[in-house]
Specification:
Helix content is 28%, strand content 20%. It is α/β, with parallel strands linked by helices and 192 residues long. 20% of the residues are buried.
Length: 192
């Protein structure tokens, strides 16, 4: 995903702006797979009570993701969201994350050009086959889903603050001369 100011970003912080159970919570957004201890350390340092995994559409199922998610949901100090594409629903369910009350599945369903569909357009929440796993189907008119009470405009996604993880910081200052090293350390202490 292309976002201005997010090249090479690992973490950013802000309040959750999407209308989920974590709405308005102070949030650490995590791009890609990162070290669990570093995530918890950064969340605590920035007073976050919510950790949002898979930010910037960075989630692709793997064993590493499974280990990371399970490690974080077991920490009851945080709400944990995983943002994933609808095609990964079965993988997420098989992981058992939804058994934790502090876990939020953010199932991303991409619908480009939604405003161009006419008033009759519908979205069907279906099953993988006839009568396979769901009791039936749910059909929603696209028009009804576009309620302003649950809409977040793109302009709201510019209010977060990119932060540098401790690991990124250590890599960046490695090899600096003593004075530059001390100046960078002091700046980080003063500015977080």
């Amino acid at each position: 995903m292309q976002r201005d100011g997010h090249d090479g970003v690992v973490f950013f912080v802000g309040n959750e702006i999407e209308f989920t159970p974590a709405y308005s919570m102070r949030t650490l957004f995590v791009v890609g797979i990162q070290d669990a201890d570093e995530i918890v350390r950064s969340a605590n340092k920035h007073e976050c009570v919510h950790i949002y995994l898979g930010a910037n559409q960075s989630f692709e199922p793997s064993d590493d993701w499974d280990i990371l998610i399970k490690t974080l949901v077991k920490n009851k100090d945080f709400m944990v969201t995983l943002d994933f594409d609808v095609i990964h629903c079965e993988w997420v369910l098989e992981g058992g994350y939804d058994e934790y009350d502090n876990f939020i599945s953010m199932i991303s369903v991409k619908v480009p050009y939604i405003k161009q569909f006419n008033y009759n357009a519908c979205i069907k929440v279906d099953d993988k086959d006839f009568d396979a796993t769901n009791p039936g189907v749910w059909t929603h008119r696209i028009h009804d889903l576009q309620n302003t009470n649950v809409f977040t405009p793109w302009s709201k996604y510019t209010q977060d603050k990119v932060i540098e993880s401790d690991i990124q910081f250590e890599k960046r200052i490695k090899g600096l001369g003593y004075e530059d090293y001390m100046r960078e350390r002091q700046w980080r202490e003063d500015n977080g």
